[in-house]
Specification:
Elements (H helix, E strand, L loop, with lengths): L8 H6 L10 H12 L7 H18 L7 H9 L2 H14 L2 H20 L26 H11 L15 H12 L3 H6 L5 E2 L6 E5 L5 E4 L5 H17 L20 H21 L14 H16 L4 H8 L4 H4 L24
Antiparallel strand pairs: 1-2, 2-3
Helix pairs in contact: 2-6, 3-6, 7-8, 7-11, 8-10, 8-12
């Protein structure tokens, strides 16, 4: 293990090895291309942070003369005792948030190695003497959800009225809060992602790394009804759709972008908190999390709701599309039920 003592974050990053030192050019190129894919929803800054995270791990985990994939990285990834030491050293050198990003980057690269039969499995990070926490699982409480839903259904409020839609907006919010979709998954969704009819309706989601997962939304009658109502409204306002039509769109039929979704969400937050100011006895104040956490809090809310309803952790993992159940363990342990039941009898938020 590298023992060079450089405590300052900036100074340490200047010493990081390049990814070329891994001598795995095609695998690194595949990984970098996957990170930059529009389906991930990653910004250029996030892609750069992941690449720096892998370099940081290699720096800490390997000696300077053993930084190739075969001689340095693979032996570390396959040894739990060594991994524990590496995680401990990362925690000594860096802030917890930086360690979290670093381990996420390594897990992401490990998925490429598994796909190419270079590694047998993505490592499950061993327990350290102190844990490297995931980002704070910010989420919305039931009364805050009700306030958001009411705000999303109000197209007469002065805030962002011209871009609002009282059918589309609450449907978007219900999908985010019930299925836990990533914002990038929602804005990339096409009409063709919906398949089947009635209780057999599924939503085939294309998630991070172009990986697909199937969500049986027909198991929740309430959720299915609001999605069907939105599609009927969409056809009446925008016109006929094809399979490649965006599932959620602007009023002119053009795809809803991430920035557009965030703009809408900020409007819902503003309306909800205006309502709270006017009638605090009826409407809860909704926390305004920073940046992307506003939308990601919906994903956490869906996860916590499933856990509270007793859905097993591995099934919550399947709904959210986590590649490793260790990520899902953030939401604590759960018991019972089958995958289909993870979305059955789901309580679609009420706001009237």
């Amino acid at each position: 293990m590298a023992t060079q003592d450089v405590s300052a974050f900036g100074a340490l990053d200047l010493t990081l090895p390049t990814l070329a030192e891994l001598e795995a050019d095609s695998l690194v190129d595949q990984w970098c291309g996957q990170l930059a894919s529009p389906s991930t929803g990653f910004s250029p800054a996030t892609v750069e942070a992941y690449q720096a995270g892998l370099r940081r791990f290699v720096f800490v985990a390997t000696e300077p003369d053993q930084r190739s994939l075969a001689d340095g990285l693979l032996p570390v990834l396959g040894n739990n005792a060594t991994l524990r030491l590496v995680v401990d050293e990362l925690l000594d050198r860096y802030a917890d948030r930086t360690v979290s990003v670093t381990l996420s980057a390594v897990s992401s690269f490990a998925e490429i190695l598994v796909e190419n039969n270079v590694l047998t499995a993505v490592p499950g990070w061993p327990k350290s003497r102190r844990s490297a926490p995931d980002p704070d699982p910010s989420h919305y409480e039931p009364d805050e959800v009700a306030a958001l839903m009411a705000a999303a259904s109000d197209d007469q409020h002065k805030k962002a009225r011209r871009v609002r839609d009282p059918v589309r907006d609450p449907t978007i919010l219900q999908v985010l809060l019930t299925l836990g979709l990533r914002a990038s998954e929602l804005v990339n969704a096409e009409v063709s992602w919906l398949r089947g009819e009635g209780e057999d309706t599924i939503l085939r989601v294309i998630g991070k790394g172009s990986k697909a997962r199937v969500l049986p939304i027909g198991a929740s009658t309430d959720l299915l009804n609001v999605v069907v109502a939105w599609l009927a409204h969409r056809r009446s306002v925008v016109g006929p759709t094809t399979g490649e039509s965006p599932l959620f769109c602007r009023r002119d039929g053009s795809p809803l972008t991430y920035d557009g979704l965030l703009y809408l969400f900020n409007a819902w937050l503003a309306i909800a908190n205006d309502r709270h100011q006017e009638d605090p006895s009826r409407w809860a104040a909704v926390p305004v999390f920073k940046g992307q956490a506003k939308l990601h809090a919906c994903r956490h809310t869906a996860a916590f709701d499933m856990v509270r309803r007793g859905v097993p952790l591995n099934l919550v993992q399947g709904v959210l599309g986590h590649s490793n159940v260790a990520t899902t363990s953030l939401y604590v342990k759960a018991k019972g039920l089958e995958l289909r039941d993870a979305l059955s009898d789901v309580a679609v938020p009420k706001w009237r």
